[in-house]
Write a structure and sequence with these properties.
Length: 118
């Protein structure tokens, strides 16, 4: 599925995109708030400035993804693989990051789940 199709389906009211392979997709600035992206493959995807607030990213693969300035407030990132991801200036307020893989993640300027700034 390509990014345009996902955006169109989201705008039509669909929210369940679990398990999709969006590796390397350009989804910068997209609004997918509240979407179910659990187990999705988003490695090397460009999600900079995206609104993923309240999204379910449980178990998603986000290795080397660009999430700079993304809104991840209240998102479920439990068990997500964020290895080498860019989360600079991302809003993670209230996000569930239980058992998420955070190996070599860039967090400069990010707002952490507890509201503190990195």
């Amino acid at each position: 599925m390509d990014p345009t199709e996902i955006i169109n389906r989201y705008q039509a009211g669909e929210r369940d995109f679990h398990g999709l392979d969006l590796s390397g997709a350009d989804l910068s600035g997209v609004n997918l708030s509240g979407a179910n992206l659990s187990l999705a493959k988003l490695g090397q995807a460009n999600l900079s400035g995206a609104n993923l607030s309240g999204a379910n990213l449980n178990g998603a693969v986000l290795q080397r993804a660009n999430l700079g300035q993304a809104n991840l407030a209240g998102a479920d990132l439990s068990l997500a693989d964020l290895g080498f991801a860019n989360l600079m200036e991302a809003d993670l307020t209230g996000a569930n990051m239980n058992m998420a893989i955070l190996f070599r993640v860039k967090l400069k300027g990010a707002i952490m789940p507890d509201g503190s700034k990195k």
